[in-house]
Design brief:
The protein is 27% helix and 24% strand. By secondary structure, it is α/β, with parallel strands linked by helices. The protein has a 9-stranded mixed sheet. A 4-stranded mixed sheet has the order 13-14-16-15. The chain has a 3-stranded antiparallel sheet with strand order 2-1-3, with no helix packed on it. Bound molecules: thymidine-5'-diphosphate (TYD) and magnesium ion.
């Protein structure tokens, strides 16, 4: 008799082994192995194998010339939810036949968002089935009433078994299926408990097949752990077409929706929401919302303009420099890369602002994360401002990347950033050397800086 191939599985990354192991050789997690059922027909690999066959029923069996496909008109019709920020992040609405994963910590508002999206799709004439494995039909109904989400085209089901969800929608034939969540859905023949790696992977694989086979768009909720990882396998992100993360900050109650992966549009787009008593409200003027309550003339705060996808946001960078003991000082970076902060601190040290015996805390207000180097000069300016206990003045916006030799380097899309600053009433901009031919927009004075020393001189010289 053939021996079963594998019997143990890492719950963190899905690595399989014939023996139980204390430490996973793949992801180095300790005590993460649990007994898994052996892979046989109809379990585990079945979804993957079927996916390897053909992704959709109308897929041609042979390669065809691309021009022929264009001539046949394969352009898809996107489904709009009316939740503008959500549609924008997806690149202009949901693509039929796609699977989108919405990840976030428990309680951040994923179910609320998807219920609003489902109701909006219904109001736009698209049938939606919302299958919840976490809440009863009555609970979802009550929430929908509160969110003003009643429409005849929205159908609710409370079910955890995936096949029953897929059977249940047969007569309805919705354009969109919402599955909340991938951790509660389960496929009985896989054997392991809901939420385990094999279950999560199988559920996702079957939903991908279902979406490609029927042309139905699937929205899948996935909880992430405190460490920010999708609970279950990381492979989930590779299976689906788009991944959106929903992140929260407690104060102010903003929620940031961020496109992480998108097969049908650009990534890096960001949308801002506020959680209110009537559900999530889109913030249409994010710069104004993020700058609200700014204390302009306090040392340690500087405003910069960041590109988030195609949109420009004005962000307040705050820094606090406090005395510490050389050799054991803290550097805390919230909203920026800690490695980048360490580099900026070192560059400032060379530029006559020694920080080796100081604790440095940096925070980006509103819970937004900056991934651009164009904010370097603003971070450095906020740190120096706190160090000197001197405010640069409230009408400055600061832009520029800092190199290791202390040079201030150019930033992309300078004109768009300056335009946003002008729109919000900023009068002066500290910028890298402007290439010839670029003109300052009316209403803002540009001050060029070639080095960190020059920049700090312009901001803090009295
Ligand atoms: P929920 O969507 O259930 O989060 P998730 O599905 O990500 O776990 O909502 C989380 C929180 O949002 C919950 O604590 C209550 C709050 N909330 C409001 O403040 N206003 C509302 O209108 C709704 C529906 C929820
Ligand atoms: Mg939920």
């Amino acid at each position: 008799m053939a021996r079963p191939r594998v019997t143990f599985e890492c719950t963190a990354c899905g690595h399989r082994s014939v023996k139980w192991l204390g430490k996973c050789p793949d992801c180095s997690a300790w005590n993460s192995f649990v007994e898994a059922l052996p892979v046989t027909e109809g379990t585990g690999k079945s979804g993957a194998r079927a996916a390897g066959a053909r992704v959709s029923e109308d897929a041609p069996a042979r390669p065809v010339p691309i021009t022929q496909l264009v001539a046949e008109g394969v352009e898809e019709q996107r489904l709009l939810s009316g939740v503008g920020e959500f549609d924008r992040i997806l690149g202009g609405g949901l693509v039929p036949g796609s699977v989108t994963l919405i990840g976030g910590e428990p309680g951040v508002g994923k179910s609320t968002l998807l219920l609003q999206v489902a109701a909006g799709l219904g109001k736009n004439g698209h049938k939606v089935v919302y299958a919840s494995g976490e809440e009863s039909v009555a609970q979802v109904r009550d929430r929908a009433v509160r969110l003003d989400g009643l429409t005849d085209l929205l159908f609710l089901q409370s079910e955890t078994e995936l096949d029953r969800v897929l059977d249940g929608i047969k007569g309805i034939e919705p354009a969109v299926l919402v599955v909340d969540s991938v951790q509660t859905a389960f496929v009985p023949d896989v054997g392991s408990t809901p939420g385990s790696v094999s279950q999560v992977r199988e559920v996702a694989a079957r939903l991908v097949l279902h979406a490609k086979g029927t042309g139905r768009a699937v929205l899948l909720v996935g909880h992430v752990t405190k460490q920010g990882e999708m609970a279950g396998p990381r492979t989930l992100e590779h299976i689906v077409d788009a991944v959106i993360y929903f992140e929260g900050s407690a104060n102010p109650p903003f929620r940031v929706l961020r496109g992480q992966k998108n097969r049908f549009g650009s990534t890096g787009e960001l949308g801002l929401f506020e959680m209110t008593g009537e559900g999530l409200k889109e913030i249409t003027e994010p710069s104004a919302a993020l700058l609200e309550g700014r204390s302009e003339n306090r040392p340690g705060t500087v405003v910069t303009a960041c590109m988030e996808g195609s949109r420009c946001l004005l962000l307040e960078v705050q820094a606090l420099v406090a005395p510490g003991f050389p050799g054991s000082v803290r550097r805390t970076a919230l909203g920026i890369d800690p490695g980048r902060l360490a580099m900026l601190v070192a560059v400032l040290g060379k530029a006559d602002h020694p920080l080796h015996d100081k604790e440095v805390y940096v925070n980006v207000v509103g819970g937004v994360r900056i991934s651009e180097t164009a904010a370097d000069l603003a971070v450095a300016a906020a740190v120096v401002s706190s160090l000197l206990s001197r405010a640069p003045g409230g009408d400055w916006v600061v832009l520029g990347e800092i190199g290791l030799t202390g040079e201030v380097r150019s930033v992309p899309r300078l004109d768009q950033r300056l335009a946003e600053a002008v729109r919000h009433g900023f009068k002066r901009a500290l910028v890298p050397t402007i290439p010839r031919g670029v003109e300052a927009p009316a209403g803002i004075q540009l001050v060029e800086a070639r080095t960190v020393e020059e920049a700090m001189g312009a901001l803090f010289a009295r």
